[in-house]
Specification:
Length: 79
């Protein structure tokens, strides 16, 4: 299989790569900020493991989304 260069890609393919990269970066930043600010007892599992997975796994946003859906415990309302 031949490797394709950036210049070999169509404008549409380049835009798709750029947009998906921006979305993934924004999701990773949002997840890391939330992990940093949220108390450990409000997170399922280790904060360190979640942060490591969010940073290291190239997931097209899947790991940050998994954190937001599965990694956070529901907040209790004290009304």
């Amino acid at each position: 299989m031949l490797a394709r260069r950036w210049t070999d890609l169509s404008d549409r393919q380049r835009r798709w790569i750029l947009v998906s990269s921006i979305i993934e970066g924004a999701l990773k930043i949002a997840a890391l900020v939330d992990i940093k600010r949220r108390p450990a007892e409000q997170i399922r599992g280790s904060k360190r493991v979640w942060a490591t997975a969010v940073v290291l796994v190239n997931s097209v946003g899947v790991v940050p989304l998994a954190y937001f859906v599965l990694g956070r415990r529901p907040q209790k309302n004290f009304s």
